[in-house]
Specification:
- The chain is an all-alpha fold and 222 residues long.
- It has a single domain, classed as Tetracycline Repressor, domain 2 (Orthogonal Bundle), CATH 1.10.357.10.
- Helices cover 69% and strands 0% of the residues.
- The protein has 11 helices and no strands.
- α5 runs antiparallel to α7.
- The radius of gyration is 19 Å and the shape is elongated.
- Keywords: DNA-binding, Transcription, Transcription regulation.
Length: 222
């Protein structure tokens, strides 16, 4: 993404230049982001903007007022999803008394945001190493690490996994199979997530091959 696009995206995200967003404008923006997320999951980054506006229940002019072009909308969707995952992690840490249940709630909620389906489809239009994007990703990683640490210290989560294992599972369990529409797999996701979560419980019923995945191993080489 160009520097100009990143600047426009940041402006759209923060509402810079608007004294105070009206409640209806804020609702419209969120409806557009919800609709765009679903459209990008189903059809990729080239999904029809007209259809996104129609699904959101707004006019094209409203969509373009919030998101001047496709790249800004893609950027907005990725931040929308990442921000929601951060909120889920913070809520789980704050409200769940049982460490395992906190991790489980976070994993289920993050899976519903379709991050595994979105990232491969939008990667050409979204630079994960831009400072703002990098900060958001680091926050998700920190929250995942803290939830995992608490579960392991309470002997509720098996000790032989790392935060990278959780990140890989979230990505893989929400990524569509080749030739299969995302919607066709949605009804199975909760079942597969529960199978995965059952496998995280301590004591571990088996020994995992290899070693726990680290975040460093998941990051691309410089």
């Amino acid at each position: 993404m160009s520097q100009a696009t990143a600047s426009r995206a940041a402006t759209a995200r923060r509402g810079v230049g608007v004294p105070k967003a009206r409640a209806d404008a804020a609702r419209n923006r969120e409806r557009i982001l919800h609709a765009a997320r679903e459209a990008f999951v189903a059809h990729g980054a080239e999904a029809s903007l007209d259809e996104i506006a129609r699904s959101a229940g707004v006019g094209n002019a409203t969509l373009y007022r919030h998101f001047p072009d496709r790249d800004v909308l893609v950027h907005g969707v990725m931040h929308f999803v990442t921000d929601r995952i951060v909120e889920l992690g913070e809520q789980a840490l704050r409200e769940s008394a049982e460490p395992f249940e906190a991790l489980a709630c976070f994993v289920r909620g993050a899976a519903e945001e379709r991050i595994g389906a979105l990232c491969p489809m939008l990667s050409d239009r979204f630079d994960p190493d831009e400072p703002e994007n990098l900060a958001s990703r680091r926050r998700v990683e920190q929250l995942t690490q803290e939830l995992l640490r608490r579960g392991q210290e309470a002997a509720q989560v098996r000790a032989d996994i790392g935060v990278g294992d959780v990140m890989v599972a979230l990505s893989q369990l929400t990524r569509p199979l080749p030739g299969v529409r995302c919607g066709q797999l949605d009804r199975f996701t909760a079942r597969h997530l529960q199978l995965y979560l059952d496998g995280l419980r301590a004591p571990a019923p088996s020994r995992l091959p290899g070693h726990a995945a680290t975040l460093e191993e998941l990051r691309p080489d410089d």
